[in-house]
Amino acid sequence: MPVFQSKRFRPSSANSTVAVRYRNALLRHPFALFGLPFIATMVLGSFFLTPATALRYERHDMKVRQLTEDERLGIGKDKRRIDMKEEYYKLAAKDLDNWEQKRVKRLPGEHDGVL
Question: Where are the membrane-spanning stretches (predicted)?
Fold first, then answer.
């Protein structure tokens, strides 16, 4: 029985293609021909995508903005302004001596607070 060669048969015309030359060079210099372009793509991609992500967050910040003190309290242009003297006189006009204590209904299982 004849022994087969360990090398594959490749015709001479296949050695001249770009793919074959790249594959042979890749076996000799794997980092230079595969690793370095991959890392360069990742680094350059991050630099090119930074403005896109910044634009995304700027649009989000325009939607969600800091509220002013008046907006937080719910006082708008259609609301009346609060005058402290007016509020004082409203409370003074009420009869604060006649009031009745009302007990708040407790939740089931809640302690009364009386020991």
Answer: 31-55
Q: Residue ranges of the alpha helices (H) in 34-114?
A: 36-63, 69-73, 84-93
- Tens digit of each residue's pLDDT (9 = 90 or more) over 66-79: 766 666 666 666 66
CA 44 to chain centre: 22
Give this prediction's pTM: 0.40
111 backbone φψ class: left, alpha, beta (φ>0; ψ -120 to 50): beta
Residue 38: pLDDT band by 50, 70, 90 thresholds?
A: very high
Contact partners, residue 33, CB within 8 Å, separation at least 6: 22, 25, 26
* Tokens linked to 71: 């907006």
Spatial distance between the Cα atoms of 43 and 51, rounded to a whole number of angstroms: 14
Measured in whole angstroms, the distance separating CA 70 from the mean position of its chain's CA atoms is: 29
